[in-house]
Design goal:
One of its GO terms (molecular function) is sirohydrochlorin ferrochelatase activity. The chain contains 9 helices and 8 strands. It has 244 residues and is α/β, with parallel strands linked by helices. The strands form 2 sheets. A 4-stranded parallel sheet has the order 2-1-3-4, sandwiched between helices. Strands 6-5-7-8 form a 4-stranded parallel sheet, sandwiched between helices.
Length: 244
């Protein structure tokens, strides 16, 4: 019997955890599979191991692991694959497949642009966009965000678009925001490239509020219909949904 195990990052923020669960439950309602379980990599429960065990207890013989991660950085290259490798060694009779992170997607960038235009009716060329990534020690994130910046430039007539990070990469959010505020005559539109609310997004919000109307903050990406559509398609691909 086929199953899907969703793996979200996890957070110490109760609001962020509830937001992740609610979002994933909407995905599960649209997916025609009898066994679907939610799990978290860290900081929230159930753990990946607990979610996997629940799939087994319900009779799963074919489990697809779907990471709810935007980019393929450290967690996607090491932590999650290590867990999957361990499961495969312990349960050789069970087919286990790990799907990729969402990655850099035209559809996500289209959703960001659509939300900016809906939220800011009087968007001006001298406004700027500051993308805020979670950050990682993995150097590939710089290339990913460079792609995202270029995709935004092709879609939106704004002079300045740049990226900053909340941890483990430079420039920091504080430096990135101060640079945009110094160099921009218009407003700074802050786009958190984060899926859910949490402590990191709360930090962003507190800082943005200090600048009043000079800084406009967008919501997390899980609020964008494009993200939901992408995940529903991942779950609905034929090799997952063809039940035995």
């Amino acid at each position: 019997m086929k199953a899907v195990l969703y793996v979200a990052h996890g957070t110490r923020s109760k609001k962020g955890e509830l937001e992740a669960r609610s979002f994933l439950q909407k995905i599960m309602m649209k997916a025609p599979l009898p066994i679907q379980e939610i799990s978290f990599l860290e900081l929230s429960e159930p753990s990946m191991d607990e979610g996997f065990a629940r799939c087994i207890q319900q009779g799963a013989t074919d489990i697809t692991v779907i990471p709810i991660f935007l980019l393929a950085a450290g967690h996607m290259k090491r932590d999650i694959p290590d867990n999957v490798k361990r499961w495969k060694q312990k349960y050789p009779q069970i087919r286990i497949e790990l799907l990729n992170a969402l990655g850099v997607q035209e559809e996500i960038v289209d959703g960001i642009v659509e939300l900016i235009h809906e939220s800011i009716i009087d968007l001006k060329r001298n406004d700027s966009i500051l993308i805020v990534g979670r950050g990682s020690s993995d150097p590939d994130i710089y290339q990913a965000f460079a792609q995202i910046e270029n995709m935004l430039r092709k879609r939106i007539k704004i002079e300045s678009i740049s990226t900053c990070y909340l941890a483990a990469a430079e420039p920091s959010f504080t430096c990135g925001l101060n640079r945009q505020l110094t160099n921009t005559t218009g407003r700074v539109i802050v786009v958190p490239y984060l899926l859910f609310s949490g402590l990191l997004l709360s930090e962003v919000s507190r800082t943005c509020r200090k600048f009043g109307s000079k800084v406009i903050q967008m919501g997390p990406l899980s609020h964008y219909p494009a993200i939901e559509s992408l995940l529903v398609r991942k779950v609905s691909i034929p090799n997952i949904c063809s039940l035995r």
